[in-house]
Amino acid sequence: MRVKLVAGNWKMNGNLASGRALLNAILPPLGTLNRARYVVCPPFPYLAAIGRALEGSNVVLGSQDLCQFGDGAYTGGVSGAMLADCGCRYAIVGHSERRGVFGETDDVVAQKYAQAVKHGLTPIFCVGETLAEREAGVTEAVVARQLDAVIQHCGLQALGQGVIAYEPVWAIGTGKTATPQQAQAVHAFIRGRIAAADRRLADLLLILYGGSVKANNAAQLFAMPDVDGGLIGGAALVTDEFVAICRAAQKAEETVKT
Ligand code: 13P
Fold first, then answer.
1. Which of 15, 33, 103, 162 lies deepest, with the highest CB count within 10 Å?
2. What pLDDT score was predicted for residue 257?
3. Are residues 41 and 9 in contact, defined by beta-carbon separation less than 8 angstroms?
4. What Å distances lie between residue 143 and 107, 149, 164, 200, 233, CA to CA?
5. The whole model's pTM is what?
């Protein structure tokens, strides 16, 4: 049984005070929502403090990245062990900004996935094509390559310990959301590809959509059969937007299961 999940990726925004203020505003309304799961991913320096502020709530902590290596001489790195120690339950892996801006390859992403799983963190594994790739008709090939890198490095069963996030790069921060049909098509492709190897694993796997999810389009996206929630950027920093998106996930659960 899949349960919808909404994760807020704060990216490199705000400060401790604004993070706390956001939590003060979102935790009470989210506390009334009992059907879906919720995660917030603040910047590294705020993880411990935000984690403490989440205690006793129904929202859990995630990181935006982690180092591909275990503890050791890796100046500036933050290991999976440290993140777990700070209370993280999830770790975003392979976000397109990490791949594009920081040059992370499929191999590095696969190593990060393995580190997350090793330390009991649930990877939120991001895949997605650029606009040029979509226009060239290679969306499925790109997503398949990104998936296969993790499967080859970590094994197919490791996918069962994570969550996939389909984030078309052209939809991130652009206000240009994929239509529910475009999202569904790629989500179905991802699930189908995994189902060809392991049907049960594919049926249980959460596949989130990310890219300009807002209060006014979340319900339509979450209504798609293979869209299991969202990875939210800009709207995760706006109280009313994030709460409305979380409500849309709750509503989608109520619709499916009642
Ligand atoms: P936006 O919601 O701002 O488009 O960002 C999506 C994203 O990259 C979440 O990880």
1. 162
2. 58
3. yes
4. 14, 10, 11, 21, 21
5. 0.97
